[in-house]
Amino acid sequence: MPKTSSKSDKSISPEQFLLKKNVTTRIVIAVCFFLLVLSVAIFLNKKSSSIITTLPSGPMAYFRMDRPAEHLRSFRQSSFWQGLSKIDWARYLKAQGASAKTIQDYQSFTESLNEVINSPLFQQFFSKEAAIAIYPPQPGFSNAEWPSAFSGLVMVVRPEMNARVFESLGKILSQHNQEVASSEKSYHQVAITSVALKKSAVTLFYIHLNDLLVMAADERVLHRVIDAFKSQKDLLSQDKKFLSASQGFYNHSSGEQFVNTSAIVEAGKVFWKESFWGNITQQEQKNTDKYLSVLEGLESVGGSFIFAQDHRYQWTVRFDPVKESFFKRPSIDRCVTINRSPVNLIPKEAVIYQWSSCIDFSRIYQQMQQRMGRLSGSPAKLPPTLEFLQSTWGLSLEKDILPLLGGEMGWFVNGVQIDGVFPVPKAGFVFKINDQAAAEGIMHKISTTPITRVQKEEYHGVTINFIAVPLIDTFKPSYAFINGNLFIASTNEMIRNVIDVKQSPQLGLSAQEAFRHGLEGRLETGHSILFMNIREISKQGLQLIEWGEKKYNQRLKQATNSEGNVMQTLQAEEAQIKADSQRHEYAQVRLNNLNNEIKSLEAQVQASAVVMESENTLSQEGRLKKTTGKDETDPAKVLAVKRSQASALQLEVKGFERDLESATSRQSQLKQTETTILQLKEEAEKYHYQVHEVIIPFLNALGSVVAQKTTTRFEHGVVDSEMIVTLQ
User: How far, in Å, CA of 218 to CA of 471, rounded?
Assistant: First the structure.
């Protein structure tokens, strides 16, 4: 049996002391762990509430996301974000001429944002679910300061534990010299905690409803939340517009958004009238009502999204079936037929492809006329460019061209041709045609007016019409009719590519995995599609940057090499100007002296003439001798010689002036060249920084996105769209 210690044992060995201390520590840790597990178990056993069965109905906007902290962390770890993070945005702002205060504010904001995102508090409260709802604000909100202007804002989070968020927030704020005071009151047996930030004169409120934490800037909106939650009436889950919008939501989505546009329009009217109505004329009030009324037919916008390898975004726009507006177009309601042939004719090289059906060209034409008429204050008319083209072609856009268009059109870009004199986009357009024979006649008239030589080539049974532009092989405007569609492209080679796809579908865009992936069912039923091969766009963008940089560096090298010659020539011109100025100045002094002599001689001759008239008794010979004296001192003859010398000297002075003017002009041009070289050298560093530190990193980051596709379907009163973003 081990020996028991007695009270008389006062001495303990170091080993015994450490053993006793370790045992105590283990006991404390065990107790803490037990309490932690117990508190978590109590929290997890609390009833879980759905956000849409907690919030009241009638929000102007609603947004919810699952696991926001996790999604944000994934985004910050993505190749796209890592690429963007390589850009020094503060330096970029400085390069753009931003003030020191703007740069400092940006840095402070990003540091604060990173501090919040990386804090344990953020991870704790945004690890599961979060939502924001905006309800119509209280009356008079337009003239109120914060937080009254945000009295309808509600934020809901489902934290990991039943923490008291504002007490934790208060500790953080106290580190930034923010004094925090909290108090609590009860409303229908629900505790409402208020947290006042004294220096900011702001008070925030929050409540706990089961496992949800609901926060607001106005206590009254929390009363409405509690009333709806307690009665289980007038909840968001019972809101007719929200239910209608949610029909298209993804199952197991990562989040949803909902916008009650009619409620926003009403709030906008109130805000406009309270803020500006008394300061504008009645005509301006009518115009404002008219502009707001075009939004009334737009009922709601709802959408959802899924974050995965393929990010999917779905949204549905719904229109009021009764109200007419700019958004409710008859062409959408009549949209029942779909022509999918253009999709199957687009070459696989296409990096961008967009196609739409249900286009009412006649209505667009009429709206354009009305808009131009309102701007000019005259009856409906066309823009001057279209008026000029109609006159040149001798065609009527409304009567001759629009009736031939079948309500479907698209465009595509096969990249940029950069091996020519300058980059040329390889772009094409496609139009559905109702009457090909009539369209052929009109296209021939358009392409040959004014007189233009249109060349033709036959390719696999299709006639390609094209115009050869002198000295530019990469640009040959072309058109052809293929499968009831009019194709117009920047080169005849692009038309040949389309014909190749017609012969061999495997060469087409529709056979590309990057294009078809994720479009199952939607490509065959969609009324509109937009495809962007973002990775290829990024790649070609880098090639275009490389081409531009070579041209820029070549220009910079030429300027640098010529700088010495320019400076040397400029010095020579300055020396020449100095010499010409001295010669001009000396000749001008001589001319001035000569002119003074001429004036003196002219005075002498005039005086002699007066003397001759007064001596009438003298003989003619005597008067002449009196007037002229000897030949070599005859003032008249001397005057003639001086005048001849002055004329010659005047020509010499003008020659010096012309030389001086030419030299000064050359000097001015050289100085301009010198200034251009200096500016180019100064801008070179900025240019290379923007290219290598901003544009190239951005394009590299963009290259981590494979492709983006958006499809749209029209139904009666509904426009349904889906966007798929495929990541690397």
Answer: 70
Ramachandran quadrant class, 177 (left: phi over 0; alpha: psi -120 to 50; beta: rest)? left
* Highest mean pLDDT of the ranges 147-151, 330-334, 592-596: 592-596
* 3-state DSSP helix/strand/coil % of the chain, to nearest 5: 55, 20, 25
**pTM > 0.85: yes or no:** no
Q: Is the pLDDT of residue 16 over 50?
A: no
How many other C-beta atoms are found inside a 10 Å radius of the C-beta of residue 117? 14
Most confident of 229-243, 289-303, 364-378, 651-665: 229-243
Question: How far is residue 269's CA from residue 273's CA, in Å, rounded to a whole number?
Answer: 6
State mean pLDDT over 600-607. 78
Strand ranges (DSSP E) for 101-211?
Answer: 129-134, 153-158, 180-187, 190-197, 202-209
* Angle made by CA atoms 26, 27, 29, in degrees to the nearest 5: 65
Amino acid identity at 534? I
d(CA 349, CA 351): 6
Report the alpha-carbon distance of residue 431 to residue 401 in Å, rounded: 12
Q: 3-state class of 541 per DSSP?
A: helix
C-beta atoms surrounding 344 within 10 Å: 14
Highest mean pLDDT out of 314-323, 501-510, 602-611, 663-672 = 501-510
User: Is there a contact between 722 and 314 (Cβ–Cβ < 8 Å)?
Assistant: yes
**Alpha-helical regions (H) of 294-433:** 330-333, 361-376, 384-393
Q: Distance (Å, rounded) from C-alpha 568 to C-alpha 562?
A: 10
CA distance 75 to 81: 7
Q: Which long-range contacts (CB under 8 A, 24 or more apart) does 191-194 make?
A: 192/219, 192/222, 193/164, 193/166, 194/219
Q: What are the residues facing 318 on neighbouring strands?
A: 300, 718
Bridge partners (DSSP) listed for residue 153: 134
Query: Tell me: the pLDDT tens digits for 516-543?
Result: 877 766 666 678 889 999 999 999 999 9
| Cβ-contact 89, 111 below 8 angstroms | no
Helix (H) or strand (E) holding 502: helix 492-503
SS (H, E, C) 197-229: ECCCCEEEEEEEECCEEEEECCHHHHHHHHHHH
Distance from C-alpha of 517 to C-alpha of 411, rounded to nearest angstrom: 21
Interatomic CA distance for residues 55 and 553, integer angstroms: 61
Asked whether the beta carbons of 184 and 173 are under 8 A apart, the reply is no
Q: Which of 495-499, 559-563, 569-573, 662-666 has the lowest mean pLDDT?
A: 559-563
Among residues 345, 353, 475, the alpha carbon closest in space to that of 414 is found at 353
Q: Which of 327, 322, 270, 269 is nearest to 298 (CA)?
A: 327
At which residue do the structure tokens 């004294």 appear? 198
Give the C-alpha separation, 513 to 20, whole Å.
69
How many angstroms separate the CA atoms of 316 and 299, rounded?
11
Write phi, then psi, for 112 (nearest 5 degrees).
-65, -40
Distance between CA 104 and CA 55 in Å, rounded?
Answer: 39
**H or E element that contains 16:** helix 14-44
d(CA 558, CA 561) in angstroms, rounded, equals 5
Contact assessment for residue 577 and residue 664, using Cβ atoms and an 8 Å cutoff: yes
Closest CA to 267 of 375, 378, 141, 446: 141
Name which of 230, 263, 221 is nearest 245 in CA terms: 263
**Which amino acid is located at 468 in the chain?**
A
Phi, psi angles (nearest 5°) of residue 27: -65, -45
CB 330 within 8 A of CB 342: no
